[in-house]
Write a structure and sequence with these properties.
With 614 residues, this protein is an alpha+beta fold. 33% of the residues lie in helices and 24% in strands. It contains 14 helices and 25 strands. The chain has helices spanning 22-29, 67-89, 119-134, 146-155, 159-165, 228-243, 249-257, 261-285, 302-315, 353-364, 438-454, 458-475, 494-507, 516-526, and strands spanning 4-9, 12-17, 37-42, 45-48, 57-63, 94-102, 106-113, 139-145, 172-178, 181-184, 200-204, 207-211, 291-295, 319-324, 369-375, 380-388, 394-399, 417-423, 485-488, 553-557, 562-565, 577-579, 582-590, 593-597, 608-609. Strands 20, 21, 22, 23, 24 and 25 form a six-stranded mixed β-sheet that branches. Strands 2-1-5-3-4 form a five-stranded mixed β-sheet. The radius of gyration is 26 Å and the shape is globular.
Length: 614
């Protein structure tokens, strides 16, 4: 007798035979959804449509307009593109095809081998992709012993993936096959090529782009309007990583396992500090610049960067003064509300633009100005006697969400402003075909920061993240290319170091909550990362500054932004950490100053304090 199972869909119980595919169930409900169903959520766990129902359960549908569905479509489209690329060019002619980073509804890729990458070749590859789609070929998944998988990947020229598997704890791994082409992918796939209707290939700079639909309009190829300055920053970061032999997680894991974490950290820190110094020198050369305007998305490192830039500006003979645009919020009662009746603190309307321009213009003329402070508890702007006058060599370092928008500083002469866009533009990928989204790196930073400084759990941060992203799309990203320069605050090894702090927070997200699937996805991603050997520091000890110091004890003066060597003994907090042979000193808050203390039971040859952009 056939076993029938109770499957609850949208609150209604339906009965299906044991072994019915989720694809068959989804087909019955497709007409109720405006977009293609690509996955199902079974009792809080994502399942591919080719899987079967084996017990009573509750299902909800995941479409191409949902984040997990969009990621599944992208991943499947990459497999389709790779299959077509190797079919057209020939496997023996291809050294590698790398999916490097996302760029305006597209993926930027580079390929190397015995072929000429031109428009004609891409046209043939795209034609082959469409032929595979018309054939509606299955994408088959198989669980393979990890040793067998590593041997297979090595034999087929995918050393980057085989190297990664050396550090996997699990004994088995999933491989996907499309018409004889097998690859390793980190995530879910659609059942067959018939789902992949919307894509395009185009030449772009020294590579090509795979254009895909947007989340908002999943049934058409999205618009391609790239920020060329952001593209160049990411392209340069990719090339620097390759020069350091760290193009993917496996190569970084090798470096850590071989005891070279210290070299990795110091080399990357040197590159970053040089970049900050170069920006400071460029500002110093522009004699008319009096306002340094810094903007970037959440957890991009704006405050940290402004402090480091101020130090470098001082080294160039300038005197920086920090200005927080938050102090120019309108009083709470005058703040506009959004469509839901909530205060809209993200929009330009929340800022007292005219008062800001009046104060900055008066400072530019050499006048003395009473500077405001916004009292967030009372929701009002206050004046507490703080005055500021700009002298020769003085510059204002202004950080805020609207700093790249000229409407915010409309009265200031263009030549008096130097605008900087900062973001965490992650270029380290899991392997050649599995990329790490830049937004994931920022979300991990924010989860750690919110837990440490605001007492929020990961669930609260994940819940707020879509709203944060919408604000970025409206108020920051449209002005990226107006910046004089782009600063990439991504640290190539930061995710490995954040892992022990973020993992426990993500495990705390309740199963069944709306945020659980995202937490689980991030946990799976973190599982691919090795952690530098040694004792891991407490999560509460992480600071949002990344700065090296070669002295044992220092205090940060929050007014001058200078680090001062403590002449006498400082009260240490018992927090220690080690990355390979490198000792890490950790920052903590103590009254009106932030202290950095390095100590150890056995004195190391040298000590260094490291802080992270979060």
């Amino acid at each position: 007798m056939e076993t029938m199972l109770n499957v609850t869909v949208n609150g209604t119980i339906h009965q299906y035979p044991y072994g019915t595919t989720y694809r068959a169930i989804a087909a019955e409900f497709q007409e109720n959804y405006p977009h293609q169903i690509l996955l199902v959520n079974r009792d809080g766990k994502l399942r591919e449509l080719q899987k079967t129902v084996k017990r009573d359960c509750s299902l909800s549908m995941v479409t191409a307009a949902d984040k997990p569905g969009r990621q599944t479509y992208e991943r499947s489209a990459i497999l389709l593109m790779l299959k077509a690329f190797y079919d057209v060019v020939g496997r023996e002619q291809v050294e590698h095809v790398r999916v490097e980073f996302s760029l305006s509804n597209a993926l930027f890729c580079r390929a190397r081998g015995d072929f000429a990458l031109d428009g004609a070749l891409l046209h043939r590859i795209e034609d082959r992709m469409r032929e595979l789609v018309r054939q509606v070929l299955p994408i088959e998944k198989q669980s393979v012993d990890i040793e067998d998988a590593a041997a297979f990947l090595t034999e087929n020229g995918m050393e980057d993936k085989a190297r990664l598997l050396k550090y996997r704890i699990s004994s088995r791994v999933n491989l996907y096959t499309l018409d004889g082409f097998t690859d390793y992918f980190y995530g879910y796939m659609v059942p067959d090529t018939g789902y992949l209707q919307w894509f395009a290939l185009e030449l772009f700079e020294d590579g090509f782009i795979l254009r895909l639909p947007s989340l908002e309009e999943p049934e058409q190829v999205g618009k391609f309007t790239p920020s060329m300055k952001v593209f160049q920053a990411m392209h340069d970061a990719e090339d620097r990583s390759a020069a350091m032999y760290i193009s993917n997680v496996g190569e970084m894991d090798d470096m850590i396992a071989e005891g070279n974490a210290t070299q990795l950290i110091l080399a990357h820190e040197a590159l970053m500090e040089k970049r900050v110094g170069d920006i400071a020198e460029e500002i110093a050369r522009r004699k008319d610049v009096r306002f340094v305007m810094i903007a970037g998305p959440s957890s991009s490192g704006k405050t940290t960067f402004s402090h480091r830039l101020s130090t470098q500006l001082m080294a160039c003979g300038l005197q920086p003064h920090p200005i927080a645009t938050d102090n120019y919020f309108r009083n709470r009662e005058d703040t506009p509300r959004d469509a839901n009746g909530q205060y809209d603190f993200e929009g330009l309307g929340a800022m007292d633009v005219e008062q800001f321009n009046s104060d900055m213009s008066r400072l530019l003329k050499g006048e003395t100005v009473d500077m405001p402070t916004f009292n967030f508890k009372k929701g009002v702007r206050e004046y507490n006697g703080e005055k500021l006058t700009l002298g020769d060599g003085d510059v204002l370092v202004i950080e805020g969400i609207h700093c790249l928008n000229d409407e915010f500083s409309h009265s200031l002469p263009k030549e008096s402003k130097y605008k900087i866009y900062i973001s965490c533009l992650t270029t380290l990928n899991i392997d050649d075909h599995n990329r790490i989204p830049t937004t994931d790196a920022r979300l991990l930073r924010r989860i750690e920061r919110d837990a440490r400084t605001r007492g929020y759990g990961a669930q609260a941060t994940i819940k707020m993240w879509p709203s944060v992203r919408r604000g970025e799309e409206q108020n920051i990203f449209p002005y990226q290319d107006s910046a004089d320069t782009v600063f990439n605050s991504s640290l190539i090894y930061e995710t490995a170091l954040l892992k022990p702090y973020v993992q426990p927070l993500l495990f705390g997200v309740p199963r069944g909550s709306d945020e659980y699937l995202e937490a689980k996805r991030l946990l799976k991603f973190l599982d691919s990362k090795s952690v530098s050997p040694g004792t891991q520091p407490s999560a509460t000890a992480l600071s949002h500054v990344f700065e090296p110091f070669l002295c044992p004890t220092m205090t940060l003066n929050p007014l001058s932004r200078k680090f001062i060597l403590c002449p006498g003994p400082c009260t240490p907090y018992p927090i220690t950490a080690m990355v390979s042979s490198l000792r890490i000193s950790l920052a903590f808050s103590n009254g009106n100053s932030s202290r950095v203390t390095t100590f150890s039971s056995t004195p190391p040859k040298f000590m260094i304090a490291i802080f992270f952009f979060v």
